[in-house]
Amino acid sequence: MKVSYHGHSVVQVVTESHTILIDPFISGNEACDLDANTVKADVILLTHGHNDHVGDTFEIAKRNDALVVAPNELAVYLGTKGLNTHPMHIGGAREFDFGKVKFTQAFHGSSYTEEDGTVIYGGMPAGILLTIEEKTIYHVGDTALFTDLKMYGEMNSIDVAFIPIGDNFTMGPEDALVAADWINAKVSVPVHYNTFPVIEQDAKGWAAQVKTGDGRALNIGDVIEL
């Protein structure tokens, strides 16, 4: 299984049978090396409804006939647009043919803004625990620091955690170091930084300070093999 980072909060997971995209914000994401017009996806997982996370979900899902797994209200909205969706909610888990998905808490917001300015409520924001072939990936989503992250670390053997460090909209570097310690992943990867001036951070400097497991700031397109 190959897990790769593609800027902002975009993560790609490639197994022998499936390609999974998490929060595919590609168009408008200058750091992203993927092409929304050609990228393959069998499954799209969404943490919440903000445009910089839903990203190119509409186009990618329709072109690939991909399954979109998202928090309930967001999944219902995407379903009205003709996408094949599966709704879930915080604390719920489900076994799919590609692996097990469990949605965790995240303290943030969730809404999708349409081109005409209409704001659509996206339900509760979430993190995602994705378990495939006995390996667990934790995409923490956009969130503040909260103590249940310690519980998630204790309840799960997490191989790779993607943790936001950008500050302003999510936890910043200092809080993210605490989160990395609590989550206790074998590898902690910083995300949600440098996309916009307001979230510029030193990712390598952050990774060097991670005390629990291996802190690793991935270059765009870098792959972790599990």
**Spatial strand sequence of the major β-sheet:** 6-5-4-3-2-1-16
Mean pLDDT across all amino acids: 98
User: CATH-wise, what's the superfamily?
Assistant: Ribonuclease Z/Hydroxyacylglutathione hydrolase-like
Second-tier CATH architecture:
4-Layer Sandwich
- Taken in chain order, the helices and strands follow as EEEEHHEHEEEEEEEHEHEHEE
What is the terminal separation in angstroms?
A: 5 Å
For the largest beta-sheet, the strand count, sense and barrel status come to:
7 strands, mixed
Assign the CATH topology.
Metallo-beta-lactamase, Chain A
Question: Any idea of the CATH class?
Answer: Alpha Beta
Number of strands: 16
Domain module tally: 1
How much β-strand is present in the residues? Answer: 25-35%
SS-based class: alpha/beta
Give the key terms:
alpha/beta, 21% helix, 226 residues, Metallo-beta-lactamase, Chain A
